Amino acid sequence: MTASELDLAIRGGRLVTSSGTFEADLGISNGTIVQIGRVGAAAETMDANGLLILPGGVDTHCHLDQVEPGMGYGAESFASGGRSALAGGTTSAISFIAQFPGAPLKDIVAESHKRGQRSRIDYSFHQIITDASDEAIAAIPEIVASGVRSLKVFLTYEDAHVTDREFLRVLAAARREGAMVAVHCENYDAIGWLTEALIADGKVAPKYHAWSRPKVVEREATYRAIAFSELVDQPIQVFHVSCAEVAEEIERAQRRGLKVWGETCPQYLVLTENDMDRPGFEGAKYMCSPSPREPGDADGLWEMIRRGVIDVVSSDHSAFNTTGNPGKDMNGRDAPFRDIPNGVPGVGSRMPIVFSEGVSKGRISLEQFVQITATNPARLYGLAPRKGDIAIGADADIVFWDAERTVTITNDRLQHAVDYTPYEGLKVKGWPVATLLRGQLAMRDGEILLGEGAGEFLARAPYEMAQPTGRLAHGFDASRVRP
Ligand code: DUC
Ligand code: ZN
Ligand code: ZN
Description:
The chain is α/β, with parallel strands linked by helices. The chain has a domain at 57-370: Metal-dependent hydrolases (TIM Barrel), CATH 3.20.20. 30% of the residues lie in helices and 23% in strands. The protein is built from 14 helices and 23 strands. An eight-stranded parallel sheet has the order 8-12-13-14-15-16-17-18, with helices on both faces. A seven-stranded mixed sheet has the order 3-2-7-20-21-22-23. Strands 5-4-1-6 form a four-stranded mixed sheet, with no helix packed on it. Strand 14 (150-154), helix 4 (164-177) and strand 15 (180-184) form a beta-alpha-beta unit. It is globular. The model has no long low-confidence stretch (mean pLDDT 96). The structure holds dihydropyrimidine-2,4(1H,3H)-dione and zinc ion (2 copies). Residues 184, 239-240 line the site of one zinc ion.
């Protein structure tokens, strides 16, 4: 190799970027894209043979190696989750650092970083705040300055939800430090009240999970999160929007110029509440929160995606085996829906499902696919311009994609650690053939070629999307006066 040679040239592909699709070669040096179009001599050449060349997927909502209070760690490690990500064309993910009683935040932060070192893909973290105590609020500046530039709050879940006052304190802390806030929007008390009534009435099967948290419960919490975002003047992303009725709240906020964004997930695009009514314990495999909705609701979500109201599709990969502890049946196969852990795996199936349901079925363009699975999540969470698009100077995270290949999803293809996929038997058109992480061949024909520890921690610097608008009622910035 001569000094002027590229490390790698990718020739004969159709490049899909966030803004266009065109035939061009790619030149890569030191893990970075350095040439697009006419590309010089290279030490190595990969022939794309007319396949699509896409930016590696960016999954900004992925529970990998997350410490779960009282439950140890979820089934999916950074190593196994990274394997699945690469198999499915995803090269970066943001996981979570938990908070729970009795463990100082700095210890959980350190433990999470230690676990991240096994990652096969590039990664970062959202810091979950479940108890906005003075100590937790005081710890936030250092955590954010270390590159964990987003906080997450839950408005439901017994051990995780914050009160309105706590939520405001977290928003204020994020505003002071220049961090994004992600919100799980469902009303804790409404769900608790409905759940008690359902169980008292003998309605305990998995399908009643959907009855315990109808759309309005999500819509109310979404409106409240938006109102508080406006009050504090703090940008937020509403996680896992399950239906158009919830997205309408986000659209209204966006029309008013608020910095409010919405995410949905494949489970809301292809699963329905009927899946939880499968015989025996099968329904438990499809339980996640918010609940999958009724047949037809996905059409409304696609419309919201097309309009740009929802501009990110993440996996919310949340890994519970069907059996074991932790696992879906940890409280017994007859456990009421309330006692069955929520969450479905999906980091490996996200890109193929969104491509198939979106591009192959004519609902969105190739460029929109790139935007919602890579560019927009990278921008929203401060990973751009390094991640999320094919551009000079960006990391050479590349997927060779066969738009014509039809595959029937089976659990083994996804290569995650979880013992099932809710998408077993789903036929998809469009499949990743090879994945590159920073110019290194990471997956080819389903074979994972990068070992544990190949991934890098992505420390996120201050960025515009997480900055406040400057619009405050009466011009009074309470976040500066009272933490
Ligand atoms: N819902 C969440 O909020 N997190 C993980 C899994 C789920 O279903
Ligand atoms: Zn959530
Ligand atoms: Zn989640």
